[in-house]
Design brief:
single chain; alpha/beta; three-stranded mixed β-sheet; 10 helices; globular
Length: 297
């Protein structure tokens, strides 16, 4: 690994993911865990493995180098959503501290894999601090937005600000709504997916007004996800390059709006690995390295 870049939209070069085969292990494990983890439905192990194989093929088709987390009996089904357990910055990786109690062992499980890849661990959220990677969005290379909700708390944000003090110019705290309460999964990335340095996909009804206004003041064009496609994770879209992204099948209006804005969307079926676990392609994927594209002069 040659470097780690502070971007959510640069060309994706390498990722850390966990195959459904290794996260789910077997149908018996799925049956034991899915209700306790608040899944929307019981995943099928065999169907999930097949879906994930197709997701891997899609990422590989973009020339992305893929690193897999291994099976690990210290973590559960949710470990498939690799974005949440760590944050990448210019200095390396920061290990998160999960707001969902059932996921508390995931950062330690990722640590060994990150070190093996040669990625330095430059810090960790500890003690009473809580931060999940789904609440962390790079607005630009020196600006980080962090959602303050049920998964990320004030102490976690304070620690993150200290750890990134020499890597960023601004950390924007975004208060998140109660929405469906502490038992539900609601991250900052539930309402925003960066598509390019000047383009983002958003769900405006649940966006704080000051955050939305800040994005617009920076010259960012916002593409709104329709209400009918919010619950099918139309807003959970992974940029694999500027204005090129991966999204779930079943959100045709969102896809059309992205295309009108000049973006290309590639679809995949995620009924078992996304919809039932309430985690889309951004959740499935911990970007490790991106190529930063230069702003036009």
């Amino acid at each position: 690994m040659n470097g780690h870049f502070q971007s959510d939209v640069g060309k994706l070069k390498s990722v850390l993911i966990k195959h459904a085969r290794d996260a789910f292990v077997a149908q018996r494990a799925v049956d034991e865990q899915w209700q306790e983890l608040n899944c929307a439905g019981r995943p099928s192990f065999d169907k999930a493995v097949a879906e994930y194989d197709r997701y891997v093929a899609l990422l590989t088709g973009f020339g992305i180098e893929i690193h897999f987390l291994p099976e690990d009996d210290t973590v559960g089904l949710d470990s498939m959503y690799t974005r949440d357990a760590s944050i990448l910055c210019g200095k390396g990786a920061i290990l998160c501290s999960m707001g969902k109690a059932a996921r508390r062992t995931e950062p330690a499980a990722q640590e060994a894999a990150l070190r093996e890849l040669g990625i330095p661990i430059c810090g960790a959220i500890i003690g009473d601090g809580r931060v999940e990677g789904g609440d962390v969005v790079w607005i630009d290379q020196r600006t980080l937005a962090v959602g303050r909700g049920y998964r990320t708390n004030d102490e976690g944000i304070r620690q993150l600000r200290e750890l990134l003090a020499d890597s960023i110019d601004d950390l924007i705290v975004v208060p998140l709504p109660h929405y469906r309460g502490p038992g539900d999964v609601f991250h900052l990335m539930s309402v925003i997916s960066p598509i390019d340095r000047d383009l983002a996909l958003v769900y405006s009804p649940l966006m704080p007004v000051p955050f939305r206004e800040m994005l617009l003041s920076r010259g960012m064009k916002l593409v709104d996800v329709p209400e009918s496609e919010f619950h099918t994770m139309g807003c959970n879209v992974l940029a694999v390059a500027p204005r090129e992204c991966v999204m779930l099948v079943g959100n045709p209006e969102t896809r059309q709006r992205l295309e009108v804005a000049g973006a290309t969307a590639h679809e995949f079926n995620g009924d078992e690995i996304c919809s039932k676990g309430c985690g889309g392609p951004t959740c499935l994927t911990r970007p490790l390295e991106r190529t930063i594209h230069c702003n036009p002069s």
